[in-house]
């Protein structure tokens, strides 16, 4: 059974530890390291939306990326060299790593099918399938082109949970820039 992407996590939990900011330069540094190791990722979440609109529109506490599940061990090894370690392991759904400055990367792990769609197994036993065309977007961060998931997939992944102010901001941008229709809970 497939369902909206956000449904696997339910309500969000506020973390008590200090939140770092994930800057555009931080994102580019991480992408460079992963690309150098031959690990393909696609930016998702808040930075994904900002990359699609080609400018930073808000502060980001983390970096969300879609990554191949079969590259998790390589991700851990490569990012471990710059002091990132696993802080949440909810595989096969996701893996979260952070460094000692609390910069955080949330890997949404997928297995690619024969059509190049990305299947993410969710914690409740269902799955979400990123469509093959969902990996075709190119965004810009600090003047550099980056691979992202498309505005349509970004929007789909924003449903199924209670949104916070950042989610509302991101959906408003997707609507304004790409004509993505808004439904509850994103209608004012």
Give the tally of β-strands.
9
**Element order, helices and strands?**
HEHEHEEEEEEEHH
Portion of residues in beta strands equals 25-35%
Uncertain regions spanning at least 5 consecutive residues:
6-16
Helix and strand content put the structural class at alpha+beta
Mean pLDDT over the residues: 91
Percent helix range: 25-40%
- Gap between N and C termini, in Å? 31 Å
Instruction: Compute the number of helices.
Output: 5
The 3D shape can be described as globular
Largest sheet: 7 strands, mixed
Radius of gyration: 15 Å
Question: Could you please describe the fold and organization of this structure?
Answer:
With 188 residues, the protein is α+β, with helices and mostly antiparallel strands. It is built from 5 helices and 9 strands, in the order αβαβαβββββββαα. Strands 1, 2, 3, 4, 5, 6 and 7 form a 7-stranded mixed β-sheet that branches. It has a two-stranded antiparallel sheet with strand order 8-9. Helix 2 packs parallel to helix 5. The longest helix is centred in the last third of the chain and has 14 residues. It starts with 23 loop residues before the first helix and ends in a 10-residue tail after the last helix.
Summarize the structure.
This protein is of the alpha+beta class. Helix content is 27%, strand content 26%.
Question: Which key features would you list for this structure?
Answer:
single chain; alpha+beta; two-stranded antiparallel sheet; globular; 188 residues
């Amino acid at each position: 059974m497939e369902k909206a992407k956000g449904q696997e996590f339910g309500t969000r939990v506020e973390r008590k530890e200090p939140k770092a900011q994930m800057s555009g330069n931080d994102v580019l540094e991480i992408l460079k390291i992963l690309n150098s190791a031959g690990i393909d990722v696609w930016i998702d979440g808040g930075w994904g939306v900002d990359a699609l609109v080609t400018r930073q529109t808000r502060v980001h506490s983390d970096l969300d990326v879609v990554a191949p599940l079969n590259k998790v061990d390589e991700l851990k090894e490569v990012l471990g060299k710059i002091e990132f370690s696993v802080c949440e392991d909810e595989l096969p759904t996701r893996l979260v790593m952070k460094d000692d400055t609390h910069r955080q990367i949330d890997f949404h792990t997928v297995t690619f099918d024969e059509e190049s769609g990305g299947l993410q197994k969710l914690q409740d036993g269902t799955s979400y399938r990123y469509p093959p065309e969902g990996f075709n977007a190119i965004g810009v961060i600090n003047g550099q082109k980056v691979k992202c998931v498309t505005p349509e997939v970004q929007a789909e992944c924003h449903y199924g949970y209670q949104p916070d102010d950042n989610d509302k901001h991101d959906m408003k941008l997707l609507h304004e820039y790409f004509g993505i229709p808004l439904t509850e809970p994103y209608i004012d």
